[in-house]
C-alpha cells in the first residue's frame, strides 16, 4: 500500500471516531475541521496525482471476434487503479470509440465507466476526441456529463465555460483550448491545454492557417506557446492533452498501429515534441498503441498506449496506464502500471496439428493467428478439430511444403475470407493480375448454381 493510501485511511479512521464516539455537535464540527485540515495538508504534500490513459477504441473487433468483455474488464481494472492510488484527475487522450457511430453497448460502457471514474464530481475526468471519434458526438453530451464531473471535448477550439460543482471541483477560468481547474483538497490551480484530433479543415480553422504551405509544427507551437504564456505560470500545475502523431526531433521513427490511418495532415510538416511549451510539466498523448516517452526527462511527453492489444502487430506488447505525480514548478514523475485484464495476442506456427491443438488447450485466454505448415492442404476434420479446441482463433494460415521443405515464397492464405476474396487471391497468385469484372460475375454465377 502506498503512502497516499495510508494517509487517506487514517483520515477515514478519524471520521469513524467522530461518528461513533462524539455526540456533541460543536466537537463534531471541530473534528470535521481538523479532519479536513489533515486531509488537505497530506494531499498538498503529495501533490497532484493523475491517471493518463488513451485509445480505448470501444466497439473494436479483431476480425469477427468481439472485444467487449475484455474492454469491460480492463476498464474496471483502470477504475480500480484510480481508486487504489487516490487519483485526483483522469486524462483520456482520444480514440474513445473505434468508429464515428459506435454500438449502443459501447456508448453505455463508456459513460458508465466515466461516471465511476469521476466519483460523482469529486474527481474530474477530461476526455478528448481522437481520429476515430466523431467530435460532435463527443461534444453532444457534455452538458449532462459536466454534472457528473466529466469534461468531454470534441473540437480543438472548444471553450469549456466556468462552472462549479457542489462538494466538487470548479472551472475557474477558460479560453479557447484551455481550462483551469481548482480542486477542494489541492491548494494550487491545475491548467490544461486541450487539443483533440482535428482533420485538415478544422485544424486550419483552429490555427488560422490560410497558406497551404505553412508549416503545421510552427503554427501549433505558436498557438500552444501563446496559451501557455498567458495562463501557465509556476504557481500551478501545467498540463497538455492531445491526440496526434508526434515524434522527437532526430529521434526514433515511431510506427502507427496496423489498421490506423496516418493522421499527419496533408503534406504538412511532422509535429515534433519541441513544439510543446516549456511551461508544460506533463503532456498526455493518444494515438500510438505502444507506450512511448518522446520528451525530455524534465518534461515528459507520453503516449500511454492502448489498454488492449488491438492487432497482431501488437502481439507480445505489455499495456499500461500512466500514474503521474506533479507539483507546481517541479518535474513531473510518472510510472507505468501494468494492465492485465486483456487476452494475449499470439502468432504461433506449427507443423503438426496435434501439437497445435495441445498448445491451444494449454492457452485458452488468448487470441491466436495460427500458421500450419504441412505437405498437403488441411483436411476438413483437422480444421474442425482446431476450431473446436479454442474460441479465440482469429486466423488459420496454411503453408504448403514444396519438395519436403517449407516454401519460403509461399503466399499465406487467410481461410476466414469469403469465397470470392479467396478466388481473387488465388487468381492474382496464378496470373499476377486481378480478375476482371466479367470473370468475377461468372464466378458468382457458378457459386450460386
From TrEMBL:
Superkingdom, natural source:
Bacteria
Keyword Nuclease attached: yes
Q: Which GO terms describe its molecular function?
A: 3'-5' exonuclease activity; endonuclease activity
Keyword annotations from UniProtKB, A to Z: DNA recombination, DNA replication, Endonuclease, Exonuclease, Hydrolase, Nuclease
Q: Where is the Calcineurin-like phosphoesterase domain?
A: 48-145
Q: A single GO BP annotation from the record?
A: DNA replication
Please state which protein family the record places this protein in: Belongs to the SbcD family.
Q: Which PANTHER family match?
A: COMPONENT OF ATP-DEPENDENT DSDNA EXONUCLEASE, NUCLEASE SBCCD SUBUNIT D
* Alphabetical list of NCBIfam families matching this protein: sbcd
Function of the protein: SbcCD cleaves DNA hairpin structures. These structures can inhibit DNA replication and are intermediates in certain DNA recombination reactions. The complex acts as a 3'->5' double strand exonuclease that can open hairpins. It also has a 5' single-strand endonuclease activity.
- Quaternary structure annotation from Swiss-Prot or TrEMBL: Heterodimer of SbcC and SbcD.
The protein in question is named: Nuclease SbcCD subunit D
Species for this entry: Myroides guanonis
- Give the encoding gene's name: sbcD
Amino acid at each position: 500500500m502506498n503512502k497516499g493510501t495510508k494517509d487517506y485511511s487514517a483520515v477515514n479512521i478519524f471520521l469513524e471516531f467522530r461518528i461513533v464516539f462524539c455526540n456533541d455537535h460543536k466537537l463534531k464540527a471541530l473534528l470535521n475541521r481538523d479532519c479536513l485540515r489533515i486531509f488537505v495538508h497530506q494531499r498538498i504534500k503529495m501533490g497532484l496525482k493523475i491517471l493518463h490513459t488513451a485509445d480505448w477504441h470501444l466497439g473494436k473487433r479483431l476480425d469477427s471476434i468481439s472485444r467487449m468483455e475484455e474492454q469491460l474488464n480492463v476498464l474496471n481494472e483502470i477504475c480500480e487503479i484510480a481508486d487504489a492510488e487516490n487519483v485526483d484527475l483522469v486524462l483520456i487522450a482520444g480514440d474513445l470509440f473505434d468508429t464515428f457511430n459506435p454500438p449502443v453497448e459501447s456508448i453505455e460502457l463508456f459513460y458508465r465507466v466515466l461516471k465511476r471514474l469521476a466519483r460523482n464530481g469529486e474527481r474530474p475526468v477530461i476526455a478528448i476526441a481522437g481520429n476515430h471519434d466523431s467530435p460532435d458526438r463527443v461534444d453532444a453530451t457534455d452538458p449532462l456529463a459536466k454534472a457528473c464531473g466529466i469534461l468531454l471535448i470534441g473540437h480543438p477550439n472548444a471553450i469549456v465555460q466556468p462552472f462549479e460543482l457542489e462538494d466538487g471541483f470548479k472551472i475557474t477560468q477558460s479560453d479557447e483550448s484551455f481550462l483551469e481547474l481548482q480542486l477542494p483538497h489541492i491548494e494550487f490551480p491545475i491548467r490544461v491545454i486541450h487539443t483533440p484530433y482535428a482533420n485538415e479543415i478544422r485544424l486550419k480553422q483552429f490555427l488560422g492557417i490560410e497558406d497551404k504551405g505553412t508549416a503545421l509544427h510552427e503554427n501549433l507551437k505558436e498557438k500552444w506557446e501563446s496559451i501557455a504564456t498567458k495562463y501557465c505560470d509556476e504557481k500551478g500545475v501545467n498540463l497538455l492533452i492531445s491526440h496526434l502523431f508526434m515524434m522527437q526531433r532526430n529521434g526514433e521513427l515511431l510506427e502507427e498501429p496496423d489498421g490506423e490511418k496516418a493522421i499527419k495532415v496533408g503534406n504538412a510538416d511532422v509535429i515534433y515534441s519541441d513544439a510543446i511549451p516549456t511551461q508544460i510539466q506533463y503532456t498526455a498523448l493518444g494515438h500510438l498503441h505502444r507506450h512511448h516517452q518522446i520528451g525530455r526527462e524534465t518534461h515528459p511527453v507520453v503516449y500511454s498506449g492502448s489498454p488492449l492489444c488491438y492487432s497482431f502487430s501488437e502481439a507480445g506488447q505489455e499495456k499500461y496506464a500512466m500514474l503521474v505525480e506533479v507539483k507546481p514548478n517541479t518535474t513531473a514523475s510518472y510510472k507505468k502500471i501494468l494492465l492485465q485484464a486483456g487476452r494475449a495476442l499470439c502468432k504461433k506456427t506449427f507443423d503438426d496439428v496435434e501439437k497445435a491443438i495441445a498448445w491451444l488447450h494449454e492457452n485458452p485466454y488468448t487470441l491466436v493467428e495460427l500458421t500450419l505448415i504441412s505437405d498437403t492442404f488441411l483436411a476438413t476434420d483437422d480444421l474442425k478439430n482446431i476450431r473446436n479446441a479454442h474460441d479465440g482463433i482469429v486466423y488459420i494460415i496454411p503453408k504448403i511444403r514444396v519438395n519436403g521443405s517449407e516454401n519460403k515464397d509461399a503466399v499465406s492464405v487467410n481461410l476466414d475470407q469469403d469465397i470470392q476474396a479467396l478466388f481473387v487471391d488465388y487468381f492474382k497468385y496464378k496470373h499476377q493480375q486481378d480478375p476482371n469484372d466479367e470473370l468475377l460475375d461468372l464466378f458468382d454465377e457458378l457459386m450460386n448454381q
